[in-house]
Amino acid sequence: MKVTIKDIAKKAGVSPSTVSLVLNNRPCRVSQQKRDEIKQIAKDLNYTANQIARSLVTKQTKTFGLIIPDIENIFFSSLAKHIELQCRSHGYTLIIVNSNDQFENDIALLDLLLSRSVEGIFLIPGSESWQNKTELIKKLQLLPVPYILLDRVFSELSCDKVWFDNEYGAYIAVKHLLENGHRKIGCIASSSFVNGQFRLNGYLRALKEFNIPINQNNIVTGDYKKESGYVAGKELLKKDITAVFITNDMMALGFIHSIYEQNKTIPNDYSVISYDNTIYPYLFGVELSSIKQDVKKLSEAAFKQLYEKTQKKVNVQKDICLQPELIIRKSVRNMHA
User: Fold this and answer.
1) How many whole angstroms separate alpha carbon 4 and alpha carbon 261?
2) What is the architecture of the domain spanning 166-293?
3) DSSP code for 166
4) What is the pTM of this model?
5) Strand locations in 40-169, DSSP E?
6) Of 37, 80, 147, 238, which has the fewest beta carbons less than 10 angstroms from its beta carbon?
7) What pLDDT digit, counting tens, does each position of 271-308 carry?
8) Could you tell me the CATH superfamily of domain 62-164+295-323?
9) CA distances, 337 to each of 114, 142, 150, 169 (Å)
10) Which sequence spans correspond to the domains of the chain?
């Protein structure tokens, strides 16, 4: 049978209310010795608090919700891990749900989390939601709890946001290829969401800065998943290019697969820079240069803002833009050498 506060109170010879005060570290008129005794009894009986009952008293569930678009994507799963660690360190539980990049799921999961009485919501909208952003924005504006947009944000929505400068990240990646003498640079992009469009803009910006004509045939689209990177790779390898910028790591995995199928190597045959810096530990034979987005910084900034909102410590909305960085390894050949 589950141990209750009444069981502890009976064994300690005090009232249940006294046990509750002691276990919640709240002031009460008992000696330190009795406090220690009550806590030891609770430990010996393997007592765990009933969070549902506690929330009825405190009016707090100590629960946040996180909606991510693709739990199989290493970037999002890593982000979920770091947010959960932040929540747990502050006594909060995190409910993680996956939208599978679908707009209808974003809407349904917002309602699901509200039905679980979460105190706040972290949201990374799915790719389909970019096409239906007017409806999603209306939904968000009616939410009865604080929320924050992560990684993928809507510029026209006034709310709390934490994101990375995607255009700058792509720009410094392609600039690195250009500085190493590459002029025929392919790109595997995804314009299905605003981040992908920003990364494509960064690619174009770097080429224009170096006065390189834009060849639209060297730009192939994908959907941020491995298979699309493989298909795009097979198409790009037919073209006259020396380097490829890939706008996320999952597509980079697919592209590397297509490289190996052609018995080509990186960087001798093709130089490659990816985006996210999440797959490097799992690659064999490729020292992949990549754009790093620090998920720890992202999670810390997002949690701090949402937590302070729920605690009513801040009322102002914050739009926080973090800077990505280029991690240089050995996947880019110097054409000047």
Assistant:
1) 63
2) 3-Layer(aba) Sandwich (3.40)
3) H
4) 0.82
5) 63-68, 93-98, 120-123, 147-150, 160-164
6) 238
7) 999 999 999 888 988 999 999 999 999 999 999 999 99
8) Response regulator (3.40.50.2300)
9) 59, 59, 42, 26
10) 5-49, 62-164+295-323, 166-293
